[in-house]
Specification:
single chain; alpha/beta; Rossmann fold; twelve-stranded mixed sheet; two-stranded antiparallel sheet; 14 helices; 38% helix
């Protein structure tokens, strides 16, 4: 909650108190409340969580202007109770569904941001993605890529997506409804477009030969879902590249229109082919960026991949030189089914959610932990860990979206502050080749 989220209920509660005491300043405080609401709407944007406040202000304004009185105690009680219920519901909605703020604790560099559009002229849109989305056949492969880079110029929190053509919070809800048979209203996460990011746009990159980190998201993920981790990495002296795998990602706002995921694994004829095409997205992006000056050392590339992105990162590193490979709940079963094993060619850091580590050992099918224990070649390159009390989505920024996520299947019992702190420490120690520091939140995976 920002200071406006505190000022609004304070002002409205003052109106209630003054009205009860028949204080002459109640009318003035009502206009103060309305002014604060308008100021937040103009400066921050529309928040549906404030609608109950608006209803209260309209009711109080009409009551003051028309000077009507309730004829019975029952009607007065119902009106007062309804106002109080609306008031506290808005407080709770603002608390449990706040506007997220993505920042970083490392202060070595500030972070610049740029989104670039890449069209690969000699590659058509792969069928592996067409069958999962509203992509049409034909046309060149098109990607949207986020670049986070170190800078010395000062930055402040900005709302990168406030005025974008689509609302990523609504896409999240639509995907959850379709995939898990839910019926959540699409506006529930519409305030995510108002999120704040501590980045600078059109600022100068610091002069250095920075190593490169590529982030590849999981099934129906999105390039912004790990922004909290990517900012921390960029502020530590890395050029970070986050790719939307168009057609697989939850949504991608291309210049030609929004491409969104419409399918599931059942809609894909070959999950391995999906990951292989994702790995080609990484290759095409890296090849394109080498012609742009980001003060980046493209001979020093590390990959961070979540879930399906872990499989794609591995396939990329099989064909290309990688420095480090960080795999967050990697989905490797399709790779084993196709290639028989997981051949490691670089230092590879596995970090599992506790769900994936502990809950699937008795499955009749091959599990990811079994892959780690039985199907790795060159095990000297592998280091395994798991995150205490975590679930599959504790490696993306859903915890920053709302405290309510701790009570859903989206994440485990671990607090967001603990998961992001542990992930940040793990990522940087792995990238820098340091000894991984275990803690009550980070544990070794048994061989």
């Amino acid at each position: 909650m920002d200071y406006l989220d505190l000022m609004i209920p304070i002002a409205i509660s003052t109106v209630f108190i003054f009205s009860y005491l028949k204080n002459k300043y109640s009318y003035s405080m009502l206009f103060v409340s309305i002014f604060i609401l308008l100021y937040q709407f103009i400066s921050v944007g529309y928040k549906w969580q404030n609608v109950p406040y608006v209803i209260i202000c309209i009711y109080l304004l009409a009551k003051q202007y028309f000077k009507f009185q309730f004829n019975t105690r029952l009607v007065k009680f119902v009106a007062t109770s309804s106002g109080i219920l609306l008031f506290f519901s808005s407080i709770l909605l603002n608390y449990y569904l706040p506007i997220p703020s993505f920042e970083f604790s490392n202060s070595q560099y500030s972070v610049g941001y740029e989104e670039i559009y890449i069209e690969i002229e000699d590659r058509k849109q792969p069928n592996a993605f067409i069958e999962l989305s509203n992509l049409s056949e034909g046309g060149n492969r098109a990607l949207l890529v986020d670049i986070y880079y170190p800078s010395y110029e000062p930055t402040k929190s900005v709302q990168l997506f406030k005025n974008t053509q689509s609302n990523w919070g609504e896409f999240v809800i639509k995907y959850l409804n379709r995939t898990w048979g839910l019926n959540l209203p699409t506006f529930v996460l519409s305030h995510l477009n108002l999120s704040y990011f501590d980045v600078g746009q059109n600022i100068t990159i610091a002069s250095n030969d920075f190593p490169v980190v590529v982030y590849t998201h999981g099934w129906a993920g999105e390039k912004i879902f790990a922004t909290d981790q990517l900012l921390e990495i960029a502020s530590s002296g890395y050029v970070v590249v986050a790719i939307d795998h168009t057609g697989l990602s939850m949504f991608t706002d291309l210049p030609t229109g929004t491409v969104f995921n419409t399918g599931s694994t059942e809609n894909s004829t070959d999950v391995y082919s999906v990951m292989y095409e994702m790995s080609k997205d990484i290759e095409d992006t890296v090849n394109y960026l080498q012609g742009i000056n980001y003060s980046a050392n493209f001979s020093d590339i590390s990959i961070i991949g979540h879930s399906t992105g872990g499989g794609s990162g591995h396939l990329y590193c099989l064909r290309n030189q990688c420095n480090k490979l960080i795999l967050q709940d990697p989905y490797f079963v399709p790779v084993v089914e196709r290639l028989s094993n997981i051949e490691l060619k670089t230092d590879t850091y596995f970090i599992y959610s506790e769900d994936w580590y502990s809950n699937y050992d008795n499955s009749e099918y091959t599990t990811e932990i079994q892959v780690f224990r039985k199907f790795l070649k060159n095990k000297s390159f592998a280091k395994g860990y798991y995150l205490t009390d975590s679930a599959h989505y504790d490696f993306v920024a859903f915890g920053a979206v709302s405290p309510l996520t701790k009570y859903t299947f989206l994440k485990g019992k671990i607090d967001y502050t603990d998961s992001i702190s542990t992930n940040n420490t793990f990522n940087l120690q792995a990238l820098q080749g340091k000894e991984i520091t275990t803690s009550k939140f980070l544990n070794l995976v048994s061989p």
